[in-house]
Amino acid sequence: MASPPYILLVEDDERLARLVSSFLEGQGFRVRTVANGPDALAALQDEPPDCLVLDILLPGMDGIEVCRRARAIYSGWILMLTALDEDIHEVVALDTGADDYITKPVRPQVLLSRLKALFRRASRDTRKPTQDTRWIASAGLRIDGVLRTVSLAESPVHLTDAEFDLLWLLASRAPDVLSRDDLLSALRGIEHDGLDRSIDMRISKLRRKLGDEQPPHRIIKTVRGRGYFCTPE
Fold first, then answer.
1. How far is residue 36's CA from residue 63's CA, in Å, rounded to a whole number?
2. Which member of 26, 29, 115, 184 has the lowest number of beta carbons within 10 Å of its beta carbon?
3. 64: nearest Cα among 43, 40, 89, 85
4. Spatial separation of the C-alpha atoms in residues 41 and 35, rounded to whole Å
5. pTM assigned to the model
6. How far apart are CA 22 and CA 19, in angstroms?
7. Mean pLDDT for each consecutive 10-residue tract of the chain (233 residues)?
8. Cα gap 56→51, rounded to integer Å
9. Sheet architecture: strand order including 6-10
10. Strand, coil or helix: what is 54?
11. Does residue 211 come out as left (phi exceeding 0), alpha (psi in the -120 to 50 range) or beta?
C-alpha cells in the first residue's frame, strides 16, 4: 500500500496551521507543521516532503529566504502562500524557485486542487518517458527525461522540478507553439486569466540558466500573441 503524500507546512499562524493541517489530513495527506524558517530547513533535511507549503510572511527569516535556501538542499515541489494583492511576492517567489503559489486567505479547496495538480505532474507520462523518447536534443541542449537531467555543451544545467517540466514539455512538443493556456493547464492545472505571469517568468529564468537571455533566442522562442516553442534539433 502506497504511503500518503507528505506535506511540510510552514505557517506561523497557529490557527491557520491547525485548520490547513486538519483539512489536508482529512483528504489523505500526512502533514507536519513548523512555524519558522530554521525549523523548516531542519525538517527538510530530516525528512524531505513530497511538497513544501511555505508562507512568505514568516518571523525572522521570511519565506523567500527559506525558499532560496531550501533549493540548495531540496528539489521537490514548493507551493508558496502569498499575501493578497502583493504581486511582487508572486514574482519573487517564482524567481526564487517556487513551483506554484496561491494567495491568502487560503481557501482549502483551492489549496487541495493546486496540490493535486502538482502531484499529477509528478505522475504524468511526460515525466516518465519511454526509452524511445528518453533523450531530446535541441540547439546543443540534451535532456534526459528519465533521469531528469539537462546538459548544455556537455555542462550540467541545474533546474527545479517545475523548470524541468516546462522545458521537457516545450522540447517534447517541438516545433509546436504552446500558448500560455496550454502551458498553465498542463503544468498547474489552471486556465490563464490574462494576468498570470508565472509562465513568462519561468521562461525568463529558464533562458537565463540556458545562457539564452538575449534575442534572437536559440532554444526557447517567442511567437508574439501565440506563445512559446522550443527549436527542433
1. 9
2. 26
3. 89
4. 11
5. 0.65
6. 5
7. 87 94 96 97 95 92 92 88 65 75 86 86 50 65 86 88 86 89 75 60 89 89 91 66
8. 15
9. 30-34, 6-10, 51-55, 77-82, 100-103
10. strand
11. left
